[in-house]
Specification:
By secondary structure, the chain is mostly beta strands. Helix content is 0%, strand content 38%. It has one domain. The strands form 2 sheets. It has a 3-stranded antiparallel β-sheet with strand order 3-2-4, with no helix packed on it. It has a two-stranded antiparallel sheet with strand order 1-5. It starts with a strand and ends in an 11-residue tail after the last strand.
Length: 60
């Protein structure tokens, strides 16, 4: 996931939190939990690009 604009925090069901700002790059490996809560910080919109990678890895 690439954050292009804005500022947000993401909290997961295990209590972990991640701060996301423009320029952040995040690899989401655990997609089977109970979910997450995204909170936008400030008044600016948040623009994120998500790229799905196959379970067996990227194509060669």
């Amino acid at each position: 996931m690439f954050v292009l604009a804005g500022h947000a925090t993401v909290g997961t069901s295990d209590g972990s939190q991640c701060d996301l700002q423009a320029g952040s790059i995040l690899l989401l490996e655990d997609t089977r939990g109970k979910g997450h809560l995204t909170t936008i910080i400030g008044d600016d919109e948040v623009l994120i690009v998500a790229v799905q990678i196959a379970e067996d890895g990227p194509a060669a």
